[in-house]
Amino acid sequence: MATKPKKFVFGLKADRQLDGDKMNSDFVKKVVAEGGKSAAIASCMQCGTCSGGCTNIDPMDMSPRTLILMVQRGEWEKVLKSNALWLCSSCYICTSRCPRGVRPSDVIEAVKAIAIRQGIENDSTRFNQIFVELIQKRGILFEPELMQKYGGLEAMLEQAELGIKLALKGKMSPFPDKIKEPQKFSQALEKAKQP
Amino acid sequence: MNKKVIVIGGGPAGMAAAGKLQDFGYDVVLIEKQAEIGGHLNKWYKVFPDFTEASEITANLKAGLGSTTILNNATVTEIKGSAPNFQVTTSTGEEIEAAAILVSTGYKHFDATLKEEYGYGIYDNCINSVELDAMLKTQSVKTRAGKLPKKIAMIHCVGSRDEKVNNNYCSRVCCTNAIKVAIEVKEQNPDCEIYCLYMDIRVLGRGYEELYRTSQQEFGVQFIRGRLSEASEKNDGSLLLRLEDTLTAKPMRLTVDLLVLMVGMEGNPELAEIAGLTLGCDRFYATAHQQYSNNASTRKGIFLAGAATGPKAIMESITDGRSAAAEIVSFLASNQANFESNMNGQSVTKMAASLK
Questions:
Q1: What would the pLDDT profile of B283-327 be if each residue is shown by its tens digit?
Q2: Domain that holds residue B324
Q3: Where is the domain boundary, B248, B264, B280?
Q4: Which residues touch A3 (CB under 8 Å, ≥6 apart)?
Q5: FRET pair for B152, CA 20 to 30 Å: which of A20, A164, B174, B210?
């Protein structure tokens, strides 16, 4: 994922300086159209309450506050490159605490939707894809199957010890579960797919 | 006893005070330097946070003046005597006896040419907030070349919070004013992008924060946290700004068609010597006590109101003028001995010291 930063003369990184002239509102409009209408992106006053409460901020390369700022300024590339989109666990702490009614979780969702439509591919999108496919198939998750599809045999062996422990404690079934009314579930799925 | 009160300065504070004083039955003489009373209000288009027309405010205050005698085109050249027997001489040659004097001489705008790095007076498209307001009034916010600007930057804190121009204080109104004019520009020219370059947003009045939020939510005004370091002119007349975007901690370059400097307020010390008034280290008139005697000057019988004692918004000046009127009435009604306790020169010195 990480691309080598472009070097300017004398070895200065080209992204060391911000080009204010590139600021535009195209991105905001796109995100708003994607379902972020109630996300109130423009209202952000950069207080950082969202980032302060974020449960997964440590591994993120961009805080939710910065992400909103980048969306405001139309910094497409930076947002799409950010791992914050995929590390967000949608816990909604940011959204419930924002004093200006900005909804960072919803913004992230909307940005992700745009990114996926644009064909972005990484481990997170692959995981999500497999997850959704399995749910569609069974109506309920069968973890070993997910593990196998996502990480292959290698991952299965790596996690085998934990899996056995979980199974012995009854936290995870070694056999796939079934849902009560598969018919109704697939009907619900079909309905959800309709625009 | 002489029931005459002299009000020096016919801005919002002076007009508001004169109106109330004549309601109380005093003979009020309002001395105004300009040909027309109203002060800075005469220049403004609309007033924040509710976009009241400035002319409406002036009309309202004028209507309240009642029996007040107005001396236009006059300044005070000499004040003799002491309370309650002052003799005031004006530049027009009149001599007036008065029991009390109210100084409401307001403020002056910061001279932006002192911040040479911003290029005011050098670059065509660098203007100050007073000039922008005049443009808004005539619906003609344009660059010098007569084009509609696509990008405008508003620079907060020009001449405020700046040791280099000897103004350490915050002018208090420029933030809200910047937001107000940003909205007005957006209303007249919706395609124009507006960037407010601020250090802190200080909008601390009723309805001000809501105005700030509205400017972002409804009008898409952008706020960039960082103080402008320098501006330079490009060949096409646009201006290249250099600043740090402190929210991402990166230096930024930004090109704009029009640069608006939100100039701060400076004290108007013209009467300091004539009236024997003390100045604070911020060069506004010092009051007898900052907490409980904020309309009394350091000299008995001379009172202060409005922006003469520090930056104030229109509404605050009006309120302060009326508060001063109440102080004067109580001063003239009492045997004036009560006021001695407030005339504590020491506390003024202390206050001035604490401001440093």
A1: 999 999 989 999 999 999 999 999 999 999 999 999 999 999 999
A2: 4-106+268-355
A3: B264
A4: none
A5: B210
pLDDT of residue A4: 58
Interface of A to B at Cβ within 8 Å reads 16-21, 23, 25, 40, 42-46, 66, 69, 72-73, 100
For residues B194 and B210, give the distance between their C-alpha atoms in angstroms, rounded to a whole number: 18
Last-in-domain residue among B214, B232, B264:
B264
**How do residues A75-98 score in pLDDT, each as one tens digit?**
988 999 999 999 999 999 999 999
Chain A residues whose beta carbon lies within 8 Å of the beta carbon of residue B247: 46, 66, 69
pLDDT digits (tens, 9 = 90+) for B254-287: 999 999 999 999 999 999 999 999 999 999 999 9
pLDDT tens track for B15-37:
999 999 999 999 999 999 999 99
- Partner residue facing A42 (CB), from B217, B245, B248: B217
Is there a single domain that holds both residue B151 and residue B90?
no
Tell me how far the alpha carbon of residue B95 is from its chain's centroid: 30
Q: How far apart are CA A167 and CA A183, in angstroms?
A: 29
A45/B223 Cβ within 8 A: yes
Same domain membership, residue B233 and residue B205: yes
Q: What is the pTM of this model?
A: 0.86
Q: Which residues contact A24 (CB under 8 A, 6 or more apart)?
A: A73, A74
Same domain, B21 and B54: yes
Chosen for mutation from B217, B221, B240 (greatest number of chain A CBs closer than 10 Å) is B217
Distance to chain B for A183, nearest Cα, Å = 45
Which residues on chain A are in Cβ contact (under 8 Å) with B201?
45
What is the C-alpha separation between A106 and A40, in angstroms, rounded? Answer: 10
Task: Compute the nearest-CA separation of A181 from chain B (Å).
Answer: 46
Closest chain B CA to residue A102? B217
- Both tokens of A32, joined, read 């708003």
Where are the alpha helices (H) located in A74-181, listed in sequence order?
Answer: 76-81, 84-87, 93-97, 104-117, 123-138, 143-168
Determine the distance in angstroms separating the CA of A49 from the nearest CA of chain B, rounded to an integer.
14
CATH number for the domain harbouring residue B71: 3.50.50.60
Domains of chain A (ranges plus CATH)? 22-117 (1.10.1060.10), 123-193 (no CATH)
Number of domains in chain B: 2
Which is nearest to B307 in space by CA: B158, B149, B171, B155?
A: B171
Closest CA–CA distance from residue A66 to any residue of chain B (Å):
7
